[in-house]
Amino acid sequence: MSNNQIVTIQLPKEDSDREGIIIPRQNSHQFVISQFTNSPADERGRKLGAKLQILRGHRRQADYLARLRKL
Question: pTM of the full predicted structure?
Fold first, then answer.
């Protein structure tokens, strides 16, 4: 799969309906986080988005510290 391709997934909605969401190959993690964070009618999704953003920050910090240890 090349870097320019996209991945399509189906996300279930609460009413058992399904909506196709196209997730870009580049910046896919941030895309998913912002989909949750910017969900106007889904408080649970916004909370999940906020927690994913915190987790992403912790991961970046851990990667940074691991690189410093190799210096």
Answer: 0.61
Mention every residue, 6+ apart, whose C-beta is less than 8 A from residue 5: 25
Q: Render pLDDT for 15-45 as a digit per residue (tens, 0 to 9).
A: 444 457 788 889 988 998 998 899 888 888 8
Contacts of 26 (CB under 8 A, 6+ apart): 3
55 part of a folded domain: yes
Instruction: Return the amino acid letter for 25.
Output: R
Domain that holds residue 44: 7-70
The answer to whether residue 52 is domain-embedded is: yes
Q: How many CB atoms lie within 10 A of CB 52?
A: 17
| Total structural domains within the chain | 1
| Contact in structure between 33 and 53 (CB atoms under 8 Å) | yes
* Interatomic CA distance for residues 41 and 10, integer angstroms: 19
